Amino acid sequence: VQLQASGGGLVQAGDSLRLSCAASGRTFSHYAVGWFRQAPGKEREFVAAISWSGGTTHYADSVKGRFTISRDNAKNTVYLQMNSLKPQDTAVYFCAAPKEDSSWYHLLRYDYDYRGQGTLVTVSS
């Protein structure tokens, strides 16, 4: 599966932004998908994950209550709705997926096999 993230931009603190992760392939509904981010000079960080069906989601503590991950398998797309953005959310965000039919839990261990290019989110104070 090929993944492509989009939707980044420059926003002010408190604003909202929605990122999209578009996937190719007919079996997209068999892939768990996660969002990660990497700020300049910092380690890669897990943000959120969603199961194949969308029935299970998991968030990093730093974004819980502000970000929502969802998916539309008919459109082969996973979304990351980001509300109440903070300057510390500034980073390159990318989506990733483990092998087909693998659990979303792999994403918590940064264990993925497919990764899209990133999209830059900049939050000004």
Concise overview:
By secondary structure, this protein is mainly beta. It has one helix at residues 105-108; strands at residues 3-6, 9-12, 17-23, 33-38, 45-50, 57-59, 67-72, 77-82, 91-97, 114-115, 119-124.
Characterization of the model:
With 125 residues, the protein is mainly beta. Helices cover 3% and strands 46% of the residues. The chain contains one helix and eleven strands, in the order βββββββββαββ. The strands form two sheets. Strands 2, 4, 5, 6, 9, 10 and 11 form a seven-stranded mixed β-sheet that branches. Strands 1-3-8-7 form a four-stranded antiparallel β-sheet, with no helix packed on it. The mean pLDDT is 96.
Main beta sheet: strand number and arrangement? 7 strands, mixed
- Rounded to an integer, what's the Rg over CA atoms? 13 Å
From the spread of the alpha carbons, the general shape counts as globular
In which range does the helix fraction lie? under 10%
What structural category arises from helix and sheet content? Answer: mainly beta
**Spans where pLDDT lies below 50 across 5 or more residues:** none
Q: Tell me the span between the first and last alpha carbons.
A: 37 Å
What's the helix count? Answer: 1
Q: What is the strand tally?
A: 11
Order of helices and strands: EEEEEEEEEHEE
Mean pLDDT over all positions: 96
